[in-house]
Specification:
AMP-dep_synth/lig_dom; 22% strand; Long-chain acyl-CoA synthetase (AMP-forming); ANL_N_sf; ATP-binding; alpha/beta; 19 helices; GMP Synthetase, Chain A, domain 3; Rossmann fold
Length: 558
């Protein structure tokens, strides 16, 4: 890792790549706004000058509540140039959580950007907090970015930040309890970005025509590190943005990404979308036919908008190894990674040589790992956080005496260095038999079935665990059809029998329960990074559980 920091790379690209396209932003009706390195950094410099004119304290927390956009990245550059620390808030957060983060971080100013639920969120913003509206923001009545930039001269020179200065505070997505503010320095984010770039450029042979689509929340470190910060360091990565869920496929085809990162739920949804058009058995048969199979696989990837992808990654949660194998049959070398907010998304990842399905690859450059006596994965990373903001008691708990971070994940390290994650320590639960059940591995086996979008295994204190299922999106509208219900019950009963045959006695599921409604961020069942909020889901169904156990069937409609 070099001694250069992320702003040093930005200033270099501003000079050496001034006319090269950097950011491509949809603006509606198929139109886009394009920003070169020169134009993007010029806007950042002008906003940085405005922020400095406000005489904010050194290191002042400047918050952003915005969906992904070109101006999320430009605004972050402005904050850094002006001497501030960024606090990005998930754009789907409730007013209550927005208020908590703004108060807890002691934010001095808030950028409000592109949002879907501003009217429900605005009550979480203190009335006395200065705010600036980014381009594409809803009507807010705040001072707007374009007017400020047009009337302000650019900040000159190459404003520097110290390596130990706080670059950002990333609040965790809150799958359990109150979000925690993870502090990352300019050293940590720069080292991670350098590591990401060396990994991707090595895999792609130094290709200079690289493209990514940014659509996972930039408030999360996965997208922040692997898309934004990597692009700021690399210089040769054009970043495209998605306009909306409805235009996602068109946005993807516009970008024609060479690097595409996603989370397990979306990889599975893409797969189920293919299965909705062609039954898995038929597709499997076609893929087995020489020559024709390659043409069919290519057609599937073109339909997904992924035919130009050289690097495909999955992170944020475990992905079923059957899903990885399926994409690889199509010719997409999908690699799984493992990391966390506390190491800025930089721990383990698959490589061309070491990428066995079911494993997270090997330790990335500069990362150290060991497995504790109880099976917990302990990690040291160049992206290691500086600590939790205002939570010194947590800092003392989360590191070993020699500086390894307690990940809370259980895993096994193979002789060749590949890591397999078997579950979260806090997710383990005991049934009435007094033995622990790890839900994640069982859920992974359920989630590959084409009828299932998501599953959650639970059953604390019960005679046996059960699984609550959300039907695949393409199937949910048929829930009330009698013949469909019969077929679902038959297929899922067969799945349950096959699954239980592979599990040890105390893990075998008593039943599969079909949830009435899908789990979403809006109803509080998923985090912004699409992880299960187990406690919320369990609380929502608590009154029904005893009734489910009283029923005889292996498949139950809740």
């Amino acid at each position: 890792m070099s001694a250069k920091l992320i702003l040093d790379y930005v200033y270099q690209h501003e000079i050496e790549r001034s006319d090269q396209l950097f950011l491509t932003q949809p603006t509606g009706n198929g139109q886009v706004a394009e920003y070169t390195w020169a134009s993007a950094v010029d806007e950042a410099r002008r906003m940085a000058a405005h922020l400095q004119s406000l005489e904010l304290a050194p290191g002042a927390r400047v918050a952003m509540l915005a969906k992904n956009s070109a101006h999320f990245i430009i605004a972050e550059l402005a904050i850094w140039m002006a001497g501030g620390t960024t606090v990005a808030i998930f754009p789907t957060e409730t007013a209550e959580n927005i208020h908590y983060v703004l108060q807890h971080s002691e934010a001095s100013l808030l950028f409000v950007g592109k949002l879907d639920n501003w009217e429900q969120q605005r009550s979480g913003v203190p009335q006395d907090l200065p705010c600036i509206a980014l381009p594409l923001a809803p009507a807010t009545g705040f001072a707007d970015w374009d007017s400020i930039v047009a009337s302000t001269g650019p900040l000159g020179g190459q404003p520097q930040r110290a390596a130990d200065d706080l670059a950002l505070i990333a609040y965790t997505s809150g799958s359990t309890g109150q979000p925690k503010g993870v502090m990352q320095t300019f050293r940590s984010i720069s080292q991670v970005a350098e590591g990401v770039v060396s990994t991707t450029l090595e895999t792609m042979g130094g290709n200079t025509d690289n493209r990514m689509l940014s659509y996972l929340p930039l408030a999360h470190v996965y997208e922040r590190a692997w898309v934004e910060c990597a692009a700021l360091v690399a210089g040769n990565m054009q970043v495209f943005f998605a306009e909306s869920l409805d235009t996602f496929l068109a946005d993807l085809r516009r970008a024609r990404p060479t690097v595409f990162l996603s989370v397990p739920r979306l990889w599975i949804k893409f797969q189920q979308g293919v299965f909705a058009k062609m039954p898995p058995a038929k597709l499997d048969l076609l893929l087995r036919i020489p020559f024709l199979g390659r043409r069919v696989a290519r057609k599937v990837l073109i339909g997904l908008g992924l035919d130009e992808v050289k690097i495909a990654g999955s992170g944020s949660a475990p992905i079923p190894h059957e899903v990885i194998a399926w994409y690889r049959r199509l010719g997409l070398q999908l690699l799984e990674g493992y990391a966390m907010t506390e190491d800025f998304g930089y721990s383990f990842g698959g490589t061309e040589q070491q990428n066995d399905p079911g494993y997270c690859g090997v330790a990335r450059t500069g990362v150290q790992v060991r497995i504790a006596d109880d099976g917990e994965v302990l990690i040291k990373s160049p992206g290691q956080m500086a600590g939790y903001y205002k939570r010194p008691e947590l800092n003392a708990e989360c590191f070993t005496a020699d500086g390894f971070f307690h990940t809370g994940d259980l895993g096994e390290l193979r002789a060749d260095g590949q890591l397999r994650i078997s579950g979260r320590k806090k997710e383990l639960f005991k049934t009435g038999k007094g033995k622990y059940v790890a839900p994640a591995p069982i859920e992974n086996q359920l989630n590959v079935h084409p009828l299932i979008e998501l599953s959650m295994v639970s059953g604390v204190g019960q005679s046996a665990p059960y699984a609550l299922l959300v039907l695949a999106e393409e199937q949910r509208h048929r829930r009330e059809e009698a013949t469909f219900r019969q077929q679902v019950e038959t297929d899922l009963a067969r799945l349950l029998e096959q699954l239980n045959a592979q599990l040890v006695a105390h893990e075998r599921l008593r039943m599969l329960v079909i949830a009435q409604q899908p789990w979403t961020m809006e109803n509080g069942c998923l985090t912004p990074t699409m992880k299960l909020k187990r406690s919320s889901i369990e609380a929502a169904v608590a009154a029904q559980v005893d009734d489910w156990y009283a029923r005889p069937g292996p498949v139950i409609w809740s």
